[in-house]
Design a protein that fits this description.
The protein is mainly alpha-helical. It is built from 5 helices and no strands. The model has no long low-confidence stretch (mean pLDDT 86).
Amino acid sequence: MDTPATDTVRPSSPGGNITYALLAIVIVVAAIFAFSTNALPDHWYAVFKTIHVTLAVVWVGGGVLLTILALRAQRESDPRIVVTVARQAAFAGEKIFAPAGLIVFLMGIAMMVNTNWGWGKFWVVVGLLGYAATFITGLAVLSPLAKKVEASAEQNGPEHPTTLALIDRILLIARVDVAVLLLVIADMVTKPFS
C-alpha cells in the first residue's frame, strides 16, 4: 500500500515581524539621537551622517563577510559551497550592496553640501575616487561574474575547470574591492592631509 507523500508546511515564523519592528525602533531612536545632538554642525547633517555610516557598515561589512565565507569555502576544497556563496554574493551585490553604496554616496554629498569643508580636500577626492572604483567594480565586474559562476556551475558543475577558474577570479577581485573599501573607510575617518 502506497502512502501518499505529505507536504510539510512550515508554520509561519514571527521572525519577519520582529525584524521589521526592530528596524522601526532603530530608525525612531536614531532620528531622536540625530535631532538631539549638539556635537555636529546641524541636525540634518547628523541624519545624513547616521544614514551614511550605517549603510557603509552594511555595504563594507557585508562585502568583508562574503569574502571571508568564500575564502573559507575555498580552503575546504568544496566548490559547491563556494558556488553557493557566489549565488548569495550576486543577490547581495544587486539587492543590498548597490543600493546601500548609492545611498552612502548620496548621504556623503548631502553632508558636504551642509558643511564648508570644500570638495578639493585630499580625503574627499580619495574617498570619491575609491567609492567610484568599488561601486563600478561591484556593478560592472563582480555582479556579472557571480552570475557567470552560477551559470557555469549549473551548466558544467561546480568542480568543472571553467567554474573553478571563475571562482578564483571573482575571489581575487572581491579581495581587492574589499581592500579598496577599507582604505576608503580609513581615508574618511582620518581625513589625511587636511
